[in-house]
Each structure stands twice: as structure tokens, then as C-alpha cells.
Design brief:
Distance between the termini: 108 Å
Number of helices: 6
Strand content: 15-25%
Helix content: 40-55%
Order of helices and strands: HEEHEEHEEEEHHH
Structural class: alpha+beta
Shape: elongated
Largest sheet: 5 strands, mixed
Strand order of the largest sheet: 5-6-3-7-8
Length: 228
């Protein structure tokens, strides 16, 4: 009995503990903190993907242990630190990173999506599809909504929801003001184009009248020139 207990104790001592990476994402400022003492690249990227909403595709053979630690780095800089020196490509929607592809020689190698468990999801196109949702890649509007929700959840966790809502309301107000100014400029440009078009048509008619020898047609020319 004592021998069995002794053997079990040895097994417990020598069973390696699961190495977990710590990944923290500040959605409001788009900053990432990572601490890893031997977690695999896939595990870290999975955590990053779940916290940021970014899709990650990689060549499975490139998975390796990662020893790294940094705090409050800009998202793109942080991801580059995690995956270097591996070749990679970022796919953007506006100023949002939509997809990361990690490969050895060619982007076509990055076909396996990093997802929970041992699932293997593959993309059949150069621009990866959102395979987990069974639909095409999310639009800019959807990505912005996802980013807004991430920032909101982050504000809630920090007890800063009221400040966050005030900031978002102010941002929305400025956005509407910008759109109003753009609409006004578009209307002004359209009006100017119409004026120029009408002027060109009037000149054309006068030239045709002069060429046809109509009386008084040549007297209209100075008036048209004054309206240029």
C-alpha cells in the first residue's frame, strides 16, 4: 500500500503543469499586454483572437513555445512582437486589423484558422472567410460594432461605463458634424458643376447661332463672357 502511494506521489511530482499565457487587451486604447513562459504560439494567438475579434490563420508547422513579456503595446506592434521572426501579413478593414496570416514562404500556406480545441478550419481563398460563422468576412460596419462592444465591456470591467458613454456620445456628435459638413461641400460642388454645365451649353448655342448667321447672336457673347 505504501509503495503504491509512493509511486503516485512521484507521478504527481513529475506531471508538468499546464503553462498558461496571460493576455490582456485594452479595447478602448487598442493596447495589448502579454506574459508567456512557454505557452505555444497557437495558444497565445487564440487568446488574442478571442479578445480582439481578429481572425488568425497560420501554417500549423510553425507552432512553437513562446517566452515573452510586455505591457500596454499598440495592438499591431504587440502582435508583431509575438510572431516574429515569422513571415506574416495583416488584412485591414479601414484602420481595423481584420485578419492575420502567418506563413513560411507564401500567404497560401496560412490556411488553418486558430480556433478553440483541436478543430481544423481551412480557408479556400486568399482573403480568408469567417469560417466559424459560416459567412463571408464581416463588413467594416460589423467590425466597428464589434470594436465598440469590446470597448464597452472593457469600460464595464474597469467601472468606467459612464465616462465611456459620455466619450462615445461626444464622438458620435463629432461624426455627425463631419458628415453634415461633407454633405454641404458635396452640395456646393454639385451646384458649381451644374452652373459650369449650363454655361457651356449657353456658349455652344451662341456659337451655333453665330455660325447659322442669326441676328443679335453675336451681341450675347460679351454677356456670357461677363458671367464666367
Amino acid at each position: 500500500m505504501l509503495r503504491k502511494i509512493y509511486l503516485m506521489a512521484i507521478l504527481v511530482v513529475f506531471i508538468p503543469a499546464t503553462v498558461m499565457a496571460q493576455v490582456t487587451y485594452d479595447a478602448g486604447n487598442r493596447r495589448l499586454s502579454v506574459s508567456s513562459e512557454g505557452s505555444t504560439l497557437r495558444e497565445i494567438l487564440l487568446d488574442v483572437s478571442q479578445k480582439t475579434g481578429i481572425d488568425v490563420y497560420m501554417k500549423p508547422a510553425l507552432d512553437k513555445e513562446i517566452f515573452i513579456e510586455f505591457k500596454d503595446q499598440p495592438l499591431e506592434t504587440a502582435i508583431k512582437r509575438i510572431i516574429r521572426p515569422l513571415n506574416h501579413a495583416f488584412v485591414y478593414h479601414g484602420d481595423f486589423i481584420r485578419t492575420i496570416k502567418i506563413f513560411e514562404r507564401s500567404e497560401s500556406e496560412a490556411t488553418v484558422k486558430v480556433v478553440p480545441g483541436n478543430q481544423t478550419l481551412k480557408s479556400s481563398s486568399t482573403l480568408p472567410a469567417d469560417v466559424s460563422a459560416g459567412r463571408s468576412t464581416p463588413s467594416i460596419k460589423e467590425l466597428k460594432a464589434r470594436g465598440l462592444e469590446l470597448r464597452r465591456q472593457n469600460a464595464i470591467s474597469q467601472g468606467k461605463l459612464e465616462k465611456f458613454e459620455e466619450k462615445e456620445a461626444d464622438r458620435e456628435k463629432r461624426r455627425l458634424e463631419r458628415e453634415a459638413r461633407r454633405a454641404e461641400r458635396r452640395a456646393e460642388r454639385k451646384l458649381m458643376r451644374e452652373k459650369r454645365r449650363n454655361m457651356v451649353e449657353e456658349r455652344k448655342k451662341i456659337r451655333e447661332s453665330i455660325a447659322a448667321g442669326e441676328e443679335g447672336a453675336d451681341k450675347q457673347v460679351p454677356e456670357i463672357l461677363r458671367n464666367r
